[in-house]
Design brief:
The complex is a heterodimer of chains A (about 140) and B (about 140).
Chain A: H1 2-20, H2 26-33, H3 42-64, H4 83-99, H5 103-108, H6 114-138
Chain B: H1 4-27, H2 33-41, H3 49-66, H4 81-98, H5 102-111, H6 115-138
Helix pairs in contact in B: 5-6
The chains are: A mainly alpha (about 140), B mainly alpha (about 140).
């Protein structure tokens, strides 16, 4: 039960931060990506503000190895890059620019973002459901 | 000149970072939006479904409670459903292939100095900037 309460608190604080920072406004996000137009640097302040506490959190977590509720701290991923990471990140960036939404802000604003927000989230979830099939089809299985 | 939007961006960013801190230090999980929802909808995160749903409930329910504090929050989301569907599919497929998005690779990955997080962030920023140029300045689509 405690696990669920803290998950909801983290989700709520994440959503509140996305609203306060202005990241639920697709024009601000597109303004950040529009380096050839009227560039808006707000997103750099958001990312900087978010990375600061997390850099401290990782130091503490890596030393402790186990989180407060007993779950082991997630292991470091194999640092090698793979085609999924490269191709996926490029596709994601293209979609991010087209709509001005990434997954967090799209979900945080779904209750007040109108039909457009709902259409985006529905397409995003459909893409997520389809990905395992695409992955086995286009990339060789890990050996 | 420092603009108010930058300060609010930093304050909201700190809140996002504290949310990720809470989820990491208490629950032992990485706060990546695409992973939390993606593992749920494709069935791979069934064992931790309750925790994922609790996180998503907070993420979806809290922002509208704060909206009245602002004079009109507008997402300015496009009314071109074709663009939105293409964008949603790209974001959905891309974040799952890459195993992360702005929160997982950007916030949680960079702060851990994860090579994959840093490369992913550089690539989606690059692709985002290019697509913005193509779609807005050449194509006039957005």
């Amino acid at each position: 039960m405690r696990r669920l309460i803290f998950a909801a608190l983290a989700g709520g604080l994440f959503g509140a931060g996305l609203l306060v920072s202005g990241m639920v406004d697709t024009l601000k996000v597109q303004g950040w990506l529009d380096v050839f137009g009227d560039w808006d640097p707000t997103l750099a302040f958001v990312l900087g503000g978010a990375i600061l506490p997390m850099a401290l959190a990782w130091r503490w977590a890596e030393r402790r190895k186990v989180a407060v509720l007993g779950t082991p701290v997630p292991a470091r991923h194999d640092p090698r890059l793979d085609s999924g990471l490269v191709i996926g990140s490029l596709l994601f960036g293209a979609g991010w620019a087209l709509a001005g939404f990434c997954p967090g802000p799209a979900l945080a604003s779904i209750t007040f973002g109108g039909w457009g927000g709902l259409v985006f989230v529905a397409a995003m979830l459909a893409g997520m459901v389809a990905t395992p099939a695409l992955r086995t089809r286009f990339t060789p299985a890990h050996t | 000149m420092i603009e108010p939007d930058w300060i609010w961006g930093f304050v909201g960013g700190l809140m996002i970072g504290l949310a990720a801190t809470l989820y990491l230090l208490v629950n032992g999980r990485i706060m990546g939006a695409s992973g939390i929802v993606g593992d749920l909808v494709d069935g791979s995160g069934r064992a931790t479904a309750a925790e994922r749903l609790a996180f998503l409930a907070g993420l979806i329910a809290v922002p509208p409670l704060l909206v009245p504090l602002y004079r009109g929050v507008d997402t300015h989301v496009s009314s071109n459903f074709g663009v939105l569907i293409a964008a949603g599919l790209l974001v959905g497929i891309g974040t799952r292939l890459a195993n992360g998005c702005t929160s997982g690779h950007g916030v949680c990955g960079i702060s851990r100095l994860s090579p994959r997080g840093i490369v992913a962030t550089a690539l989606y920023l690059l692709a985002g900037g290019l697509m913005m140029f193509l779609a807005r300045h050449l194509g006039g689509m957005i």
